[in-house]
Amino acid sequence: MAEAKRFELLGEKILHQTVNPELLVYCPSMDLIALGSTDQQVLIYRLNGQRVYGAAQKVNTLRVEKITWKPNGQLLAIAWSDGSVRLVGAESTKVVHHFSTNSDGQEFSGVTCMGWSSNTIGRRVEGKSSKLVPDTLKDIFGDESEFSAGKAVLNLPRDLTLLDIEPSLPKLSVLPAGGTSDEAFSSRSSLDALFRPFDPEDNDMADVMVVGTKEGNIHLSIYDSFVVGSFKAPVIAQRRPAYLVLCTSHKLYSTYALLMKTTESEERVYFVPMDLRFLSASSEYLSILASRSTALENLLRYISQIQNLLLAEWKSTQELPSRFLRNINETLAEQDNRDIVQALYHSVATGHTFPAVREWLVDELTERVRFPILLFMIFGLSS
């Protein structure tokens, strides 16, 4: 009798937090494991047990509902109990993009399922009379070279369209973080995740995310940030809509298999096929259009963040002199019934400095206010 094969142990790790067994996903393309703990943290580990990072929600009352990897492993989607879905990079906790699965004012009970897969664009199934229709499941899922043979045909307009000059351009600078600023631009890793060059190999693929909620809503989005929309589940039993518990698809076809239930205790499971016809009917250039549109959207976010930082810095430079001047003016008005302009003119004319002014210059200003600002206070404010 042949000896049974055993699994090979690749690594072992003892964690300080208790892991939720329902929040455990593996990324084969990056060899990373994402898991959710009972204290509502998402931890990323390598196969050797090395911790990459940990992500937690700023609001302690929220719970981690679902986690899933992007098919290429470059992003991790985290669904929280308030209906928000945040996309974080594989090597950084910075949020690349976020959206909400529930509408304002509507009741929300939680996320029940979240799937992320890649599907071929523009592939149409031939008619029954065509000889290209495979006869068996092995022909359908076994050899994909027959369906991709047309890709080898030379096409100069297509090759020129897919030509990407972005790697030749200088990289954007990292912006300082703090306050209400967008932290997605505060590190090099998050910037690289946002402005990733277009891969021509992914030109005929579309990344589709399906999110199901307890109320029976199904939320669709493609290419990370393009929201297709939400719709109610087509199954209604006992006057309540069914909710999504599992979804899957094959990358060669635009049809998704959905499994739904009405209650957790119900044993009956509903199978619903969902065909995304816009994938099979779309042009082969949908990927590059979505990629460039996403890059433009992120660039506009970057420019807007620069404007916000410049405005905050300008307000700070304007408020800093007035704040220090207000403090010393109040002190001089109480002591000698004068202001800082008169006191500084007195120091320039006589060489004598009032004790309050000396203390203000030495103790409060020090290195925070430089010589140009002093000149501005002396000569600019007197006009």
Automatic annotation (TrEMBL):
Stored Gene3D superfamilies: YVTN repeat-like/Quinoprotein amine dehydrogenase
UniProt entry keywords in alphabetical sequence: Cell cycle, Cell division, Mitosis, Ubl conjugation pathway
Any single biological process term in GO: protein K11-linked ubiquitination
Extent of the signal sequence: none
Domain Anaphase-promoting complex subunit 4-like WD40: 25-119
SUPFAM superfamilies: WD40 repeat-like
Domain Anaphase-promoting complex subunit 4 long: 271-368
InterPro entries from the UniProt entry: APC4, Apc4-like_WD40_dom, APC4_long_dom, WD40/YVTN_repeat-like_dom_sf, WD40_repeat_dom_sf
Domain of life: Eukaryota
GO cellular component: anaphase-promoting complex; nuclear periphery
Keyword Transmembrane on entry: no
PANTHER family, A to Z: ANAPHASE PROMOTING COMPLEX SUBUNIT 4 APC4, ANAPHASE-PROMOTING COMPLEX SUBUNIT 4
Name of this protein: Anaphase-promoting complex subunit 4
Originating species: Monilinia vaccinii-corymbosi
